[in-house]
Amino acid sequence: MKSGASEAGEDSKDSKPKGNRGISFLDFIMRIVAIVGTLGSAIAMGTSNEDLPSFKQFIRFKAEYKDLPTFTFFVVANGIVSAYLVVSLVLSILHIVMSGARITRVVLIFFDTVMMAFLTSGASAAAAIVYLAHKGNARANWIAICQQYNSFCDRASGSLVGSFIGVLVFLLLIILSALALSRN
Amino acid sequence: MKSGASEAGEDSKDSKPKGNRGISFLDFIMRIVAIVGTLGSAIAMGTSNEDLPSFKQFIRFKAEYKDLPTFTFFVVANGIVSAYLVVSLVLSILHIVMSGARITRVVLIFFDTVMMAFLTSGASAAAAIVYLAHKGNARANWIAICQQYNSFCDRASGSLVGSFIGVLVFLLLIILSALALSRN
């Protein structure tokens, strides 16, 4: 513990690293929340498919996430981000033990920011398509497919929630890391 | 200058704030780049419209960004982010003068992260729709409108570039701020 604080260089007051330990612990808990959110989103979207009772046998009435490239991107993004979050738990635990660490916090801010952008990108792109599926667009002649594939649409819409919770958690994680850095 | 460094609390070595001044100057330059990118994107998308030679007078053959809610969101997001960037220049200049500042850097990281998420959201949602406009989707019966509105589509696609440059700049800005904080 002391070696971790000395690694960071100066460690003038004992109270500050203690405060950072609280921040690091919160960081750990929030990463668990984000893992649940993003993994849940990936699974919810990845397992979504709907078979419609088909009257004409030669037409395939089935909807799944692979039909829309944006939804595939959403599943991949959520999968990668949740895997990253699991790996990042190692650094998070390290910060609970070595609450004075600086370099690893900057590294964590970097990767957290990249992953937040990646997750936001996947979630927003999917949200744009879900919105289109619900509302359609008369000017572009894009019909609202949700009237047909109701359960598929509900599943896709619901899976966005976990992803956006993940984005919010990343926002808080970055602020917490910056706060911990400023207190070192 | 000295008062700014003392505001931050400890200021043990003179070399570090000097390094931070370089970082703050880079921060300022990059914000200018991001302003050009996001404002350019907002204007490019906001002024895009295409009139097609119409054979049937009663059908309106015109495409503009307001036809697609996602593109409206894109213009609004880019407009708000570029306005934020102009305001943030004040803090950026402050950091060049007071290179030891901590609290304002944490504040800047917070708002930069929020704005990055907002910009990424707008850019990705618009990219999903642009992709759809180019490729269409056979499974959802959404046609590729770009075959019809070629110049509108080119304009919309091009306007994404400035926005994504803005996202990259935000990523660098957040890392630079974290680096400056860790060196304080």
UniProtKB/TrEMBL annotation, chains A, B:
Keywords attached to this entry: Cell membrane, Membrane, Transmembrane, Transmembrane helix
Subcellular localization: Cell membrane
GO CC terms, sorted: plasma membrane
Domain Casparian strip membrane protein: 21-168
Annotated family: Belongs to the Casparian strip membrane proteins (CASP) family.
PANTHER family assigned: CASP-LIKE PROTEIN, CASP-LIKE PROTEIN 1U1
Protein name: CASP-like protein
